[in-house]
Specification:
The chain has helices at residues 12-24, 68-76; strands at residues 2-5, 29-34, 40-43, 46-49, 57-63, 83-86. By secondary structure, the protein is α+β, with helices and mostly antiparallel strands.
């Protein structure tokens, strides 16, 4: 799973770069989605609204990769805003 971090208002150039990247990994993609608008964090201290900013998770991509290193190589070509975190998903 690739978690996409960082929000800034997308320009046409950013949108085009994202479109090309998603096309390039379409054969490896199982699911993808994005977040917009509201987000909340729930903890022992209660609930707080989370703003969209450079620390925000803004989307995810679930891809098929041989291993974590292969997933990292795929993620490196992504035109990310702030960063991407790569997680290996355990089958349940």
């Amino acid at each position: 799973m690739l978690l996409h971090f960082g929000f800034e208002k997308p320009t046409p150039e950013i949108m085009a770069a994202w479109g090309k990247w998603f096309e390039s990994v379409a054969d490896k993609t199982e699911d993808k989605g994005g977040f917009h608008g509201g987000a909340r964090e729930i903890s022992q201290d209660g609930t707080k609204d989370l703003p969209m900013g450079m620390e925000s998770i803004t989307g995810y991509s679930i891809i098929n990769a041989e291993n974590l290193e292969d997933a990292e190589k795929i993620a490196q070509d992504n035109p990310f805003i702030a960063s991407i975190r790569v997680y290996e998903i355990m089958a349940m």
